[in-house]
Amino acid sequence: MRLDNHVEHGVAGPYFSVQLATHTAAAPGNLKLYERVHTIALQRRMHSTPSLGRFDVPGASPDFGAIGRVMLVPAETPLSIRGTAASTRTVRCCFRPQHLEAIIGAPVAIEPDRLHNCLNVQAPKIRDLLIRIGDDLEAPGFAPAARLESLGYELIIALTRHLRQLPRYRALAKGGLTDRVFKRLLDRISAESPPPTLTELAALAGLSVRHLTRAFAERTGQSVHFYVEQQRLLQAMQLLHNKELAISDISRRLGFRSPAYFATAFKRLVGQAPTDYRARR
Question: Which CATH superfamily is domain 179-280 in?
Answer without folding.
Answer: Homeodomain-like (1.10.10.60)
